[in-house]
Each structure stands twice: as C-alpha cells, then as structure tokens.
Amino acid sequence: MGLVWWLGVGLLLVFAQAWASSPEKPKCLPGFKKDSNLFEVDRRHLHSGRVLGKVGFDDCMARKRFKFGSSDRHFHVEQDGTLMVSVCFEMHKYSLCPSFGSNVVFCEGDENYHVIQNLPVLRFLNFSKRRKRAWIIPPLNILENDRGPYPKLVAQIRSDKDKWSRMEYKITSYGANGLFIIDRNTGQLYVTKPLDRERKSQYMLDVHANFASMVNAQAESTMAVIVNVLDMNDNKPVFTQDPFVAEVAEASAKDFVVITINATDLDDPQTYNAEIRYKIWSQEPKLPNANLFAINPVSGAIRVNRQGLDREKYPRYTLEVEAADMRGEGLTARGRVILTVTDSNDIAPAFEMAQYEASVPENKVGAQVVRMSVTDGDELNSPAWNAKFQIVAGDKNGQFAVETGPGKQEGIITTVKGLDYEMTKTYTLLVTVENEIPFAIRLPTATATVVVSVEDLNEAPVFSPTIRVVKRKEDLAVASEIVRYTATDPDTERSQNVSYKIMKDPARWLSVNPDTGLIKVKKGMDRESQYVQDGKYTALIMAYDDDVSPATGTGTLEIELEDVNDNIPSINERIIKVCNTESAPQLLSVTDADGPDFAAPYTVSLMGRSKNNWTATMDDTGTGIILTLIRALPMGDYNVVLRVADNHGLEQDNIVMATVCECTGNEVTCKVGIREGGIGLPGLLVRSGAVLLLLLLALLLLIFIRRRGGEQNEPLPPNEDIRDHIYYNDEEGGGEDHQDNYDLSVHRGPDDRHGSSGVMPCFMPKAENRPRPANPEDIGKFIDDNLTAADRDPLAPPSHC
Ligand SMILES: *[C@@H]1O[C@H](CO)[C@@H](O)[C@H](O)[C@H]1NC(C)=O
Ligand SMILES: *[C@@H]1O[C@H](CO)[C@@H](O)[C@H](O)[C@H]1NC(C)=O
Ligand SMILES: *[C@@H]1O[C@H](CO)[C@@H](O)[C@H](O)[C@H]1NC(C)=O
Ligand SMILES: *[C@@H]1O[C@H](CO)[C@@H](O)[C@H](O)[C@H]1NC(C)=O
After folding, report:
1. CA-nearest residue, atom 14 of ligand 2
2. What is the pLDDT of residues 654-694, one digit of tens each?
3. Which of 66, 137, 496, 510 suits a disulfide with 545, CB 3.0-4.6 Å?
C-alpha cells in the first residue's frame, strides 16, 4: 500500500459534457467524442514516448488541434489527441490499483494498465419533443473486482432543474437489490459491493428526480441507465481436458496434426483477458530429439515437427503444455498431453536364410516343399507384422504355391501340380516377403531363393487309351487274337520292362501274353452270357514294371460282341390246360436269346401225331403261337410237339404238355382224381418195371456218351442238360416211325411214389440248352427205339407227373 504514492493519479481525460447540454440532434455540441476511453498497455511498454492511443475531440468548428491536459504527470496528450507515456516509470510487481475519489487509473494484476475516464455525470434530458432516451443516455461502465472502499461513487445524477429547485433523487433497479444506492439529495450514485462480470455483466437502473418541495412531484421523466461491468482479467485459462490423450502413428509425416488442445477462459471474450496462446513447455522423453512436436499458439493444434518417432524405442511421449491469456502474457495454466506412438509398418520382414534347398517327390500334388521363417520388428500379430509371400520368379507354369503359415512368420511352399522328374529335375524359385499392409515408409523387400530338386519315382505304366474298345464276333474261335493292348512306362530314365496280366475277366474268356500284351480268346465267348452287358464284355488288364516295388497301371478292355445266331427259339409256356369241347385257343410266347437279327419273326409247325388233333399258327407279331385243340379228346394229359424256327431258320422242337379237361370253352375245370384209364396196383407194378427199365437205359446212354465223347472232337459239356433233345431225332426229315415217338403221353418219368430221382422227367419246363454242333443221331435213335418199345407196351399205363 505504501507504493501507491508514486502512482500519482490524475485526471487524464477531461470529462466531456457535450451530450448533456441538449437533446437536439442536429445541433452540434463541442466535446470529447467519447466520454470514456479505455487503453490497455503492457507494463513492459510503459516507457517514455510510448503511444497508447488517441482521444477524439470535436469543437463543432472542424478544428483538429487542441490543447489537452493530463492530471497525471506520467501521461501526456499531444495536440492531436495522441495519448503517450511521458515519464519512464516501472511498476512494482505487487503494486495495487489505487482509486482516488472519482478519478481512476487502474492497474490490474501486475501486467496492464487500464486507463479510463473520470466520474460520469448523467443528466436528465428534456423529452418534450422526442423520446429517444434509450439511446441518448450512454451506459455507465464499472470495472469489476474494484477494491473499494465501498460504497463507491460511480456516477453523478443531475437534473438541470436543480438550479432553481431542490431535487430529490431515487433509483429503482432490477435484479440488483441493494447493489446500487443514490444520495437522494446530491444525486450521487454508489455501488455497494465489488461487481463480478462473470456473474452478471450488465444491470438496468431507473433514476427518478422529484421536486423536494412537493410530495411526489415528478420533476423529470424516468431515466433508464445501463450499467456495464467491465472485465478484469480475473480468470485463468482452464484446459478442457487434463491430460489430453492421443495416438500418433510412428510413420506420421512432418506437420501431421496429432491433436488440438483447448483451454477456456471465463473472462470477457471481447478482450485480451480471454485471448489464449498455447505453448509446449516440455517433452518427455527428449529423444530422439527435443522438439518432436510443435504447437500452433493460437489454435492449440499439436503437430509432428520432426521425423524420428519410433514406436519400437519410444512408445510414449508426455508433453507439458501451457495456456496463457492476454495473448500469452496473462494468467497461465499448465496441462499434459499424453501421446502414444502407434505402430506403422516401418520394418520390413526378413528371411532367416537367403537360400533354401528342398526336394520333393515327383507327381505329388500338395506336397510341402519348404518352410521359410521370417522376422519382423513391427507390433506382434498386427497387419504390419504378419508376413505375406509371393513367388516372383522360377515358376512359369504355376506348379508351386506359397502361403503364410499359421504363425504368420513363415512361408510354406507346396506343389500345385505333380512335378515330372523326366521333364524338369530342379527349379529355382525367387520368393519375396511383405506384410499384409503396405510399408509405411520406403523399405527394401526381402527375397529368398529356393532350389527345389525333384525326386524320381517309379511311375506306373500307362495304357493308351485307358479304355480300349474292340468289336469281335461272339463265336470267335478259341486261341484267336483279339487285340494287342499295351502300356508305356513314363519312367524313361529307368528303362524298365513292362509285363501284362489279366486283372479282371469275369467269364474267364481271355488270356494275355505277359510280354507283348497280346490278348487272345481262351474260351468261347457268348454274347448272351450274364457277364455281357448291352453286348459288351469288360475286362481289366494290368501292366506292371520290373522295379523292386513294381508300379502297376490298369487299362480297360471292352469287347463289343457281335451277335451270331447261336440260340434256338423256345416256347415259354410248357403246361397248358384246355377244355375238350369248344376249347379256347392258347397263346404261347417264344423267346430267343439272340439279338433281334436272329430272332423274331418265328415260324411254327406241329410235329408227328400232334397234327391230327391241334393247329398252331403264329400271331401277327410273329412272336406268339396260337395253339388250338381241334378235336374233342378224352380227358387226360397230352404232349404236343411244336417246331419253332427263328428268322434264320434255326429251329427246335418244343413239347408242351396239355391237360385236356372235360369242360366247354374258356373256363377250364378238371375233375380231380379221375384219370383216363385209372391206375390200379398191377398197373403200378408194371409201370415201376418200365421206370426201372428206363433208368437202366439212361445208365447205358451215359456210358455210351462217355465212350463216344472220347472219340468226338467236341464233347458235350457234362453239366449241360440234354434232355430236351434226346426224345426225338427229327432233324433229318423225321419219318413216320420217328414221328410216332413224339407222343410222349405214355412216356413218363417216375412219380414221387416211385422215389423219383428226376433222371427222366416227363417234360422239360423250359429248353435252355444250346444245340449240339454235332448231331447226336445215334444217341437219339437208340433212345427212340427203346422208348417206342416201352410206349407200345400194352401193360404200361400212362403215368402222370
Ligand atoms: C423543455 O421543453 C419545454 C417544452 O417542451 C420547454 O418549455 C422547456 O423550457 C425545456 N426545458 C429545458 C431545460 O430546455
Ligand atoms: C474448446 O472448448 C470449448 C468448451 O468445451 C468449446 O466451446 C470450444 O468450441 C472448444 N474450442 C475448440 C477449438 O475446440
Ligand atoms: C527287358 O527285356 C529284354 C528282352 O525281353 C531283356 O533283354 C532285358 O534284360 C530286360 N530288361 C530288364 C531291365 O529286365
Ligand atoms: C388224337 O385224337 C385221337 C382221337 O380222335 C386219339 O386217338 C389220338 O391218340 C390223339 N393223338 C394225340 C397225339 O393226342
């Protein structure tokens, strides 16, 4: 407080009364252009000659130069109104703001001077002509935080009528209870407490003037006064966050803006009191250099100032920042900014070896060739660390593939196609490694050479073509050549011999020469065999080389068998039942195992005595026989002999057993148990004798055949059934004698009661045999003769089956 004395304060600016003299607008009143001027000056600039600003004055006569005076010797006003410091002086750091009466020079903090004008006088205006008080009365400006003492005089209210009458002044205020008071006699307006602009920056007062001599005699219209609270720099800046946190990629370019920090100041944003400047106070660590970041002092934007960010070494920086108001010269605040350096792909992956050697067996697809490890210094398991491989040279045909192993730090080369040792024995591949994301900075890409040796393997011989189709007649003679079907061995370097073997030959018809691959007929082929599908017989041939562990290849031989008329047509239905009167025609179907070239249409004729009692004709399709009984026969079983021939005349006699019943038309009903002639006990005995005789005959026949078989070129296959053929021998023309033998009605096989062994059944359900190439004339005659003899035996009654 003792320091106050030297800050002599005086009237700096002469109070201007111009506005108060008259409300008449067009009428010019001499005076200061503003009744209040505010200049700010930094304390450091309070040196002699420093211009602080200019005050304006109008004398209504357009003159520009006047004689101004200053009540404070430190300040001086030039004739043109320029206000400057006249005496060099310093302010003590802790000097306080003096306040002398109504003349005020403020010093604020220890930084700035606010020089404002003296005590304002507010006069009531004569509104008789116009009512424009709202903008005619200038606002009252009061600095906040004034130290007092209080009540403090802030303005003088005057009515011009106080010259001739005593006045009584009053105020009413809104929202400022007790803050403003007025001396009712003098009109002096006081403020009772320090104001705070940050709480309320403006007040409205109504001032009233009454004649003191009369009660409630209003002397003037109410005057509205606006009180503005002037800002002092009484608020520090405050950072909106502390700390500020941000990330910065290590590869960030210079001037990349990392974060913009922000501080606010509650002071009047219209003044410097709230004008903030930022700076970086310190950086920790100061490595690799101290000024890695820079800040825009106005905007607070922190940017990268230099290269050198390296996450691998300095993953985090702490900046201490400062915000200061008064454009960086006022109150300050400190804060921190924490910057995390994030990884950029600034390290290239590197192979552990420059060259790899590997060998891989030929012909193997998907075989692993080599695994190549790499290292990368970037952040583990990030895309900047994960490796990506590429084969850039040495694989023209795309025979290799490279992929990243599960650990992402390994490249695995595999074969995409089987390699051929006989074609290429080594490959030299050039492999590069990069990361999943591109490098953030310019980096060389690492490469490695992989030399792949192909291992020779014993390869299987290959048939060409793999399926060989040939067309041959089904009756191709045994031992005749079918085809030479060979395989070649791709192992050209090994000079191996290839051998052949039959691998699959279901009917055992074929043989192959192991050395030449020549395939021959081993046994007569048959197009109608169950092993033939759609006329094709399929066999598999194997070729194998003579390696220690032989490799085998397989070829398929398809023989298309051309049809030969080697099957006789045959009647399917062998048992029929008909009525003996008006009997219905019977439809019998015919089949021939041969293909259509050697089958329908068929022809039919009745043989022997059957002609007498039956008719047989072909139907329209040529495949069905219409058999009709033309004579009413006695009830009983009859054998009807039908000769059926195919379209090439290959024929066979078929025996159909017809049971003739005592009935009429279609509805065949047979009376059970009643048979023609019946069978008595003596008859049975006689028949047994006949059966025994037949058995004996069959035995003789077998012996006979055996003996003949030794002499014949083509013996009958022992397992084939000849029974359908031994009952007749009519191919030579069939004389009457022979034809008699066709009636087999009395030539019966033994029935069950006689312990039938099935050697000689009474009829064949179906002829399924192939014709004998050699005519067994002698056999047939031999048997026929014997059968005839038995047939004519009057003691032999017809047997039944
Ligand atoms: C105010 O105006 C009235 C007429 O409207 C006039 O009579 C009076 O003299 C004026 N007073 C002053 C002080 O000018
Ligand atoms: C600073 O923060 C204040 C208050 O949160 C906000 O109004 C202002 O817009 C911010 N300034 C910038 C530059 O972000
Ligand atoms: C291959 O066969 C030929 C003649 O058949 C024979 O001379 C040669 O030794 C055989 N080669 C091998 C490797 O067995
Ligand atoms: C044909 O019918 C006569 C009777 O009319 C009969 O005696 C003869 O045995 C029958 N022949 C055949 C083969 O059925």
Report:
1. 262
2. 888 888 888 877 777 776 544 444 444 444 555 566 667 77
3. 496
